[in-house]
Amino acid sequence: MELSFNNSNQFKKSNKTVYDNLNHWARMRTILRTSWNGNYTGKSYNGQPRKIGGFRATQNAGDWLSRQNYSCKGPNPLCNMVYTGGINRMRGGIKQNCDDQGVPVSNTNVRYVYDSSIFTRYAKQRAYNPIYNTEN
Known about the structure:
The protein is 27% helix and 3% strand. The chain has helices spanning 15-20, 23-35, 54-58, 116-128; strands at residues 44-45, 48-49.
């Protein structure tokens, strides 16, 4: 008796034929093309080496350079308020000290703990990424 996969004769087919016909592989390729081809998935950005792990970089889960409590410009909610007592002391509450490293500020909650299923999906995509050439 010959072994079968999904009650079919797919053991005799090539990997390309098997994987190109399945919907979940097509979705995986779409995810790899759209999210793994970004600027933040490499080892460096604007000449600055990445200081966070690959999972946090691809999921936009942390600051690229692991800067603590760093902000650069942004809206100041107190700038249009009418003068009231000591509120003028707080008008410059948004930090304006930007560095010249050329790496954008993280806009995420860096203390959020991700579910293990998200990391499992990341590990699966990381293993599949070299097989599927996303450069095309």
